[in-house]
Fold these 2 entries.
Entry 1:
Amino acid sequence: MFRPVAARTGDRVQVGGGSTLSTQGKASWCKSQGVGTYLKTAKDVRYKGRTARLRTEAHWDEKALGAAWDVAKGDRVTVWRTKKTYEMYEKHRYIKNPSGGKRGCHDTANWYEANVMDHIQTSAVRLRKNGTHSHAVRVCVTTNRGKAKCQPKWFVDGKR
């Protein structure tokens, strides 16, 4: 059973190249995973023995979350979502540099998640705004030493 841990208001997350971005509190936009099934969406991120994956809902396609495996205590997985929405095409697409800012929702591995489950998972973020526009999302994994690696491109859902 996965135990999502909400981001705390004011948390700072390191994102590639040493920059940090503030995460928002769970009450503002990190949502429950619900009962939906989540499928692998984009290419996995592998970093220092950890594997992170972006997953989106299979049926309603309204939420996305981040998951990581082979984790150590203190590792963090973050699902990032752009504030701006992008037009959806028939198939999904990827964008390199989104504009308009972003927000992160994360989980940090505790002892049990690292040593027994060997898995962590974030709360979900809203993916689609409506039937024609979607937020771009990506996942990052941060080691317990503070180094991070993110998917190089952001996923924009397609109409299906």
Entry 2:
Amino acid sequence: MIKNSLLPIFLLINLFLLNSEIHSQFNFYTGYQLIYDDNIYNNYLNTADLINNLQIGTAYNFESEINNLQFYYEGVFGDYKTNKIKSFNSNKVGIVNTHLFSEDYNPLNIGVNYSFRNNRDEFEVYNFRQISAYINYRHSLSETNFILPGYIFLRNEYTNFSVFSNYEHKAFLKWISNFESETSLMLSSEFNYKNYFDKYNFEGYANDGSFIKFQLNIAQSLSENTGGNIFVIYKKNLTDKNRYVVNDSLIYYEEEIFNDLYAFDSFDAGIGFTKIFGDNVKLSSELRYSVRFFNGLFAADLFGTELNELRKDNQFSFGLGIEYDLDRFISGFVLSASFNYIRNNSNDFYYDYSNTIFSFSIDYGF
């Protein structure tokens, strides 16, 4: 039986399918990624490993001129060569319907998916289950201006850490404008709210959380095959309480376990470039600076002793990637490689680190 909260989604999908000439199509895609990461835990210990990632996805589409209904599966299988206990698999199944309302497209997307992640040994405490439902609509105000409102509902369940399980709501609005100067402007705002399954009446202990986020992105074509962009992102946390668990007199905060986005204010700024060579090679790069001010989470020394100041991180990162489309030789094949460097300066000694990542990927789909 379909839960009442999801019933309107299925009714809308059923409505769009009526009176349509439908064709079916099967899609398959897979990818292999080899990663060398010299700091897999992102902390001062600098634990390195070689990681093999295998991705598999299938989709079955029911298409008409104005509608596409898709059922899909996505799987990721990660194997760590040295730190075997960190190996995992994640799986997602879902359904999404895209409906076009006019010759200007104006697509409405409605979808539901279920995903889960399984870990090994000690890392089983991170096992994760999620149900997600979403809706978004891209409307053309003119030939060069668009708005994109949307909403996402998430049910996040940590099967071995139920104290952190929560319902999450995300609402967003984006404005996109394109100009004759080949400049593109994107403004977006987002509100996030989460409500924990379990409630506790402890002073300073969070039963919910929320934040707002604003983003500005300006992209510019520099030549026929070259483009650049700059962006700024500001996120303001609306709560200053935290969730945590206590084990043997030690306190483990949610942010330390799951990188909780509701634990800090942040500011990000960056610049990126993309260059296309011929029809097959794309080179991209990004330089980013971010600062995080943690709310109610004190910095600590390497012995776990809290200091008299809240944690603050200043992070510099750089990424470089190259992609080679092999379609002229073998249809559907793409080769890519990337390099990423992160330097995180923190007044919390445990999170003062650097991280270098090299990766090589091969992807195929039809």
